[in-house]
């Protein structure tokens, strides 16, 4: 195999092999841009080195050959005493990992060649010694593993209050001696003076830096695979530290915050490498370079245009000016904010650089979701009292409360509350649901609070360690003696992690206002509008909503839902109707049971009428009652205590207790629920079907679809279906009758089940729960964060559909279901329906639609459009 590529041999498509930096250096070289010559050692060589603990046999020879060729072109040899070639050795993986790995500049300097360098620079001794001290400093830190502070401290001691550029040649020469002393002291060896040895050690250090702890952590967070390895770029040095006619800078071809075209960047005179970003001296805005060096500036602007046109996207750039000559040192398609991503994509369409299809691929559902969170008014005055981790984006304002019960209580009175806890646990769930936002003083981005809040789309700041939270005293203290007691208003920004005292004004996102029907008002919203229209025009997947109320249904419709994919009926049995359900369960005679059902039916019917009206003739999939019965009955412990402490318990209470005991289940999720309940309580499903049928009859154009939950075998479905079909015929209404596929057995016997089902909807919450054997209500807090840390999965299977396991079951069910019934209509209604990666999966396996919560509908529409390209 070939392990080394000259910059002239590569191109931008070889990122796997040459890393992003190497591939783009090659691309720029081939575009004829001024790139210092060099070569790239492949990621394959790195993988070999990391696996075997030593470089491949032929690597040294291959590197030597390319070095010789480089020396030939440059007309000088690496580290040659009287006229040295110097090189940099730079890391560069496929995915950019900013600042995570290592780079060493000025390789080839030693006690002899430093004089040669000074001579080469026309007697500029200061420059030569400055380069030499930088080499020892960088090499000492990254290759030899010496604590960088030792060098920094020595530099500070010489500098005093002056800047590094104020040091003269003599001082820098003495600093080099000090640095060499540090190396000797820390490693027991002299600084390696052989240039080739320097290069070899630096290359291996770059390989090793792939597995540095911070690089591992970064990869885990960014979901970059751990086995890619990094490439190594060896490149002739150019010098921004010659003097004031030289310098180094970074630039963007557009504003990465807004997408606006222009000159964005920073420049630092008489500086090298990282100096610009390291903040050692104040940089100047890039526009001012025009005044300092018009020729280089004009050339840079010209090259920025070349790059934008060539990459057809925003690029970021590293450059250096050496005595009036501009050199390009790096470019890549740059990171940007969510807002800029949309603006840039449509700007590029207008410039004729990309098509609308491409524009749709340039943005993501996650970016769109970010644009939909409300935000704090930037202009408003704020008093910041702490900063924690930005666990779940959004802006929330409310009264601080310190317990779940209090949160529920105040929210019930219509107050906005922020739940403040040291950390949350599953017992806080009710409070988290009731609160506008969640603030914790402990725990990271995978803590219970963070994971659950993100799942609920609720604003959360976690791990604000400056805060001292006292639950018993119902207050917290912040630095500077600020005390916030229960009931005082705070504001938390889940996008930045900031905590403010008092109420910071919140503004609705303009993008949500647009989805609600407002005309596109600014550039961003116009961009979103164009991209959404194009995504809608191209997508094959339908998008429906999970909605249980007329209000949710109406919002879903405005957001573009083409129907309801999941209308849950269980909440329709809560509140005042609970009593009727209790009667139903406790009924000792058929007459009593029928009376309870008769009382429930008109209430159910009016629920459905509202929803059918809101959906204006679009299909509505109604799931018959699903949750375990005990959810409608009093808590066993509470009831036992009440009866035990009561002087004269009523007969009714005794009967209730007996029933609650009888129905108590160790494992309700695997108990009497869904179709099982429908089969056990006579008349329950029939009552629901009748309510649906009569409601449909009343709303012209209504399109009900009746969905039976938790089916595991076709026999269950058949008996329920027969009755449903009979009732529909009696009322004279047409409706599809289908089932959820949410038990593994249903998926595996889908061929049989399709005999009795006109549609399938994959209930991937339960399907995931049962396939993995994870209780969704329990595991997320307890061990998922540990699993994520260990990399057992990169993302919770409840968040992104597990293609290998759960996805496999879905594929089987799709194939076998359609084999039995070719026109079988297929959808998904779990939380996954609004998750970008899962939407792509649904497209790939050929489902007809995804259904998700109303707020996720735009995300699903966009991702469905992207999946179709
Ligand atoms: P990172 O990936 O962390 O940005 P780089 O490999 O880009 O690290 O290098 C760090 C700094 O050194 C950058 O500012 C880069 O422009 C500069 N640099 C790298 N190679 C050279 C070179 N041959 N001549 C001059 N400067 C260089
Ligand atoms: Mg760089
Ligand atoms: Mg379910």
Automatic annotation (TrEMBL):
Q: What is its EC number?
A: 2.7.9.1
Give the binding site residues for Mg(2+): 742, 766
So what does this thing catalyse?
pyruvate + phosphate + ATP = phosphoenolpyruvate + AMP + diphosphate + H(+)
Could you state a single Gene Ontology molecular function term?
Answer: kinase activity
The UniProt entry, under InterPro entries, shows:
ATP_grasp_subdomain_1, PEP-util_enz_mobile_dom, PEP_util_AS, PEP_util_C, Phosphohistidine_dom_sf, PPDK_AMP/ATP-bd, Pyruvate_phosphate_dikinase, Pyrv/PenolPyrv_kinase-like_dom
Q: Which residues form the PEP-utilising enzyme C-terminal domain?
A: 528-865
> Which residues act catalytically here?
448 (tele-phosphohistidine intermediate), 829 (proton donor)
Essential cofactor(s): Mg(2+)
UniProtKB keywords = ATP-binding, Kinase, Magnesium, Metal-binding, Nucleotide-binding, Pyruvate, Transferase
Superkingdom, natural source: Bacteria
Annotated substrate binding sites: 568, 623, 742, 763-766
Q: Which SUPFAM superfamilies match?
A: Glutathione synthetase ATP-binding domain-like, Phosphoenolpyruvate/pyruvate domain, Phosphohistidine domain
Q: What class of enzyme is it?
A: transferase
PEP-utilising enzyme mobile domain ranges (all copies): 415-497
Matching PROSITE patterns: PEP_ENZYMES_PHOS_SITE
**Residue ranges of every copy of the Pyruvate phosphate dikinase AMP/ATP-binding domain listed in the record:** 60-282, 290-339
Q: Which family does it belong to?
A: Belongs to the PEP-utilizing enzyme family.
Q: Which NCBIfam families match?
A: PRK05878.1 (NF004531), pyru_phos_dikin (TIGR01828)
This chain's protein is named Pyruvate, phosphate dikinase
Question: Which lineage do the record's taxonomy fields give for this organism?
Answer: Bacteria, Bacillati, Actinomycetota, Actinomycetes, Streptosporangiales
